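Summary for the lay section of the report: proteins are chains of building blocks that fold into shapes. Here we show the chain for STAS domain-containing protein and then a coded description of the shape we predicted for it.
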Amino acid sequence: MSLDSITLEAMKKELLDKFKEGKIISLIQTKKYKIIIEVKPVKFLDSNGLNKKSETFYIHISLDPSLPEIYFTEFENRQKTISSPFLNLLQNQLKGGKILDIEHPNFDRILHFIIRPYQKFGKVQNKILVVEFMGKHGNMILLKEDKAIETAIKLIDSNINRYREIMPGKLYVAPPSQNKIDPL
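The coded shape description reads as follows.
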């Protein structure tokens, strides 16, 4: 099944229903383009609407060019974890944070996870984890609140793409819009 804008909108709504204000326990990278976010929801209701013990869920995000995917499960799938500078910065910035919102801008194949990082002291600035499900051009980018890029799973300089430079310190520019009409 392809990951189109309608599917992504439905997934966004489901993720928001379950994980809004949820706490990020950890982040795991299992493949070059796959990140798993371990989240504990604020409250979890059973089928009768009663509070149930909070459980841990795993949001799987894959930017594999042949099969981009996003889904969540409550089953821990212990896979070999790889380490990368991208994962290290994600863990440093987002671990312990709360998912405030998830946006689906311009009905495109992009999700923005708005996250309030855990911080004991000082002013807290929200982070934005941008996930672009664009096949071979897919990317996962961590932004500061002012849209400045902190890091990305694929760093792209001006030699590769003059329109969109994805490098730390640069301002984030969204991919060119496909001017899709929102049917919802």
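Put simply, here is one thing we learned. The first helix runs from residue 5 to 19.
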